[in-house]
Amino acid sequence: MHDYSPPRFSKSARSKEDLAILAIGPKIALPFCVLVAVTTHQDRVSPVCDVARCFLVVETDGNREIGRSAVTLDAMALYDRARRMTSFGWDVLICGAISRPFQMMLTAGGLRVIPNTCGAVQDVVRAFFDGSIDHGSFRMPGCGCCGRGRRRRRGR
User: Fold this and answer.
1) Which of 88-97, 107-116, 140-149 shows the lowest per-residue confidence on average (mean pLDDT)?
2) pLDDT above 90 coverage of the chain, percent
3) Percent of the chain having pLDDT more than 70?
4) Cβ-Cβ contacts under 8 Å for 128 (sequence gap 6 or more)
5) How many structural domains does the chain have?
6) What domain range is 69 assigned to?
7) What is the CATH number of the domain that holds 121?
8) How far apart are CA 68 and CA 65, in angstroms?
9) The pTM is what?
């Protein structure tokens, strides 16, 4: 397991306006350090967040990348996992499928979760920063979030 150093700028030093910009999304320039974590498995977004062990953490200053690191978590209960992940100071988690209880624990800990994401990690990170992460090509098939896999059959 890799030790992870805390972010350069603490969340408490951010203004309410800065946090509102992060909540809106990355379609505008971010004026502060943002830590974006992506669940990874073989250079792709890991399909299930609840059991993902590897994370790529991208540190940025605004929309400019200033560092990357890998974090590995051991297997543990979801509550402990959520507590550990929120203690790293990550701002955003991009992941594949995630259970509702786990997502709620992470969100309650201050982590913005972008679930049901798939694709090559490099492409997903680039899409996050250019504002196209919501594009259908990065959504997991059948997740129901963009119309794919939601076919209703009439009759029977």
Assistant:
1) 140-149
2) 54
3) 71
4) 26, 36, 92, 94, 114
5) 1
6) 32-134
7) 3.30.420.130
8) 8
9) 0.74
